[in-house]
Amino acid sequence: MIEIVELPELVCIGYEIEAERQELPALMPGLWDRLFAADTGATSFLEVSSEAEEGRFRRLVGFLAARSTEIPDGMTKLILPARRYLRLSHEGPLSGIASGFQRIHDHAATTGQKTGDLKLDFGYTPGFTDTRHELHVALEPQPLLLG
Fold this sequence. Notes:
It contains two helices and eight strands. The protein is of the alpha+beta class and 147 residues long. The chain has a single domain, classed as Alpha-Beta Barrel (Multidrug-efflux Transporter 1 Regulator Bmrr, Chain A), CATH 3.20.80.10. The protein has an eight-stranded antiparallel sheet with strand order 1-6-8-7-3-4-2-5, with helices on one face.
């Protein structure tokens, strides 16, 4: 079931890259390996995706943290403001995550909701086990209508 959720401000810490879409499949496994090898104390991980500019995409693989968390060497802190998202729970193989995001985009188009380019994928674990993932696609802010 796809639902609208409001997430609070999120502080994400991790490794970030910017690359062309076709480069991502070769680059992402190494980024995840670096994250899982780092001594962060985190047990739950996420991927933050956005379009940096036309044809180039930004990915951050990391974990949620408090604002005051020290940033480990080589990592980046990304603060996402509170906002609304469309959310879908994905149960099954990791290979099905892309189709889960497509379902969210199809739902938004069918229901007339405008989405942004920000996507969140919570649920990664070392070893890439087929665990439950929470997929989120950001909704564009709605204009305030004064009547």
